[in-house]
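Handoff note, outgoing to incoming analyst
You'll be picking up this chain. Sequence as last confirmed:
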Amino acid sequence: MTHSKPPDRTQRTKAPQKASEADESTRTKKPEAFPAAALEPASAVGKRGKAAGPGPQPEACAAPGRRRRAAGRGAGAPRCSCACTRLGGAGESNSICDVTSFLQTVFQSIPFFIAFIGLEFAVSWVQKRKLSGRINDGISSLSLGILSRLPDVLFRSVDLISYIYIWNNYRLFELPWDSPWTWYLTLLGVDFAYYCFHRISHEVNILWAAHQVHHSSEDYNLFTALRQSVLQKYTSWIFNLPMALFIPPSVFTVHLQFNLLYQFWIHTEVITNLGPLEWILNTPSHHRVHHGRNPYCIDKNYGGTLIIWDRIFGTFEAEDAKVVYGLTHPVNSFDPIMLQLRPLAHIWNTFWATPGFCNKLSVIFKGPGWGPGKPRLGLPEEIPVITGKEVPFNPSIPAYLNCYAVVHFAVILDLYTELLGTVTMLSQGTVLLRIGFIILSLTSFGLLMENRPKAGILEIIRCLVFVGVYKHGYLRSQFSSLGYAYEVLFSLCAAFWGIQIMKRITSSKDKHH
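Most recent structure output, in case you need it:
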């Protein structure tokens, strides 16, 4: 990383005059557009800063966690000077650094997510004398959540890129960012855009193939809120673009993140009814209906923060009979890759098996329940009847495997958080290597939770890869003191799985004899 050279004496004496000229320019000039460099991946920005030629170089933007650590080592926190062009007038927080820094709030919310999950467990135990979730389903949900955020390590948010492009090139007028009415309008606009996208995601098969990941859990708790699709973000951005014609990016970004974070707490069974608020807000009761597979729950309650859109457009349904959660046809798997891709494979097979070009297009763009001769969204009578005796997918595995999975998932969460905090300091090769190891680990955990025979072989490979890669410095923990402990842990685990496989092979030979 390079640092700017301090200005000489003549530069220091001219600085106040330049600052006053810049202030005057800010007051009189039209807001500038984001530079093209601002849209590059974060790792590319850091790499370009290192490779730049002689002369003063700006320091690459570091993630918030990295800035805090760096601040303790010098006279002050590093100055983020890469592509910080301003978008708005004086006083408006609309630079690329301001907007992208705010997007990091989701990553910084991880400790709060964990704290609220612990609180939900405690309240559920007091209320029902049982925990609010299962280890296998919880790890599956968290794995899908991590998997869904990994593309953001390499690329800037498509929501942000597309919104800024429209704002820079096509905005019709500019609402004042400091007016309360702009913020109220943006709250309604973001939530209405979410309602439209969410509803279409249930009514168009190709979009449902991505969104169904969030509905695939047969539990309903705060873990489920983190269960997200890798692909969904690449279609949702379209619905926000009309707001870019007049709403500043900084205001839009705040409400986009608020809408996302709000929906975390409504994924719970420990909160029953909120009285008059049920008429306006999307609440746990309303959202439980949305996640149900009971016939009365299908395609209902799409709102994000508000429930008013469902009441207006006829998609509202109050909670009535006990809700059974999950998909109408459960996938029965904890493998995060399979959960992400299996629906697409189903559409692919159905597409080629369906006769007629128009019917093939209908497979993609009509509802998931559609078939030749059926209505656009399918036949309601074909939805499986709920008997109340449904049993969630829950393979029996030894208790030690549950403990093993929890410990190793905690290690992966540590490595993932470290990756988020240091991504701008790493080469793209190292970033890709870390992402690959995280994906390998999450896949292996899914197979372990299903008690699949090949899980042991995958674990041997994973543990040996970790030991080799960690020794060469390509993987790092947030806590340097844990490095040796991790190496010992993974070495012992590789030996353990080797012994288990040898026992299985020996046992198989004895049976044949």
